[in-house]
């Protein structure tokens, strides 16, 4: 086989693998968002304490990212 033909076949395999991975990732994201969107509300994000709100975790993550940069 010629080198150009081999390159074309391998390029096609790479494109196919990329498409499969992207489709899987999009399916997982869609599944998570579609099943979890009903749980996200103002109280979930901004409630203080350890039982509910996630605002403190968001702020902490932002600080960690800022410090690491």
A few lines on this structure:
This protein has 3 helices and no strands.
Q: Compute the separation of the termini in Å.
A: 49 Å
Shape verdict: elongated
Note the beta-strand portion: under 5%
The overall pLDDT, averaged over residues, is 89
- How many separate domains? 1
Could you name the key traits of this structure?
69 residues, mainly alpha, elongated
Explain what this protein looks like in three dimensions.
This protein has 69 residues and is mostly helical. The chain has one domain. The protein contains three helices and no strands. The longest helix has 34 residues. The model has no long low-confidence stretch (mean pLDDT 89).
Topology:
Elements: H1 3-36, H2 42-46, H3 55-68
């Amino acid at each position: 086989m010629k080198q150009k033909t081999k390159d074309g076949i391998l390029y096609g395999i790479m494109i196919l693998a990329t498409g499969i991975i992207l489709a899987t990732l999009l399916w997982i994201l869609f599944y998570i968002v579609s099943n979890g969107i009903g749980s996200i509300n103002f109280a979930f994000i901004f409630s203080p304490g350890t039982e509910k709100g996630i605002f403190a975790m968001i702020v902490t993550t932002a600080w960690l990212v800022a410090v690491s940069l």
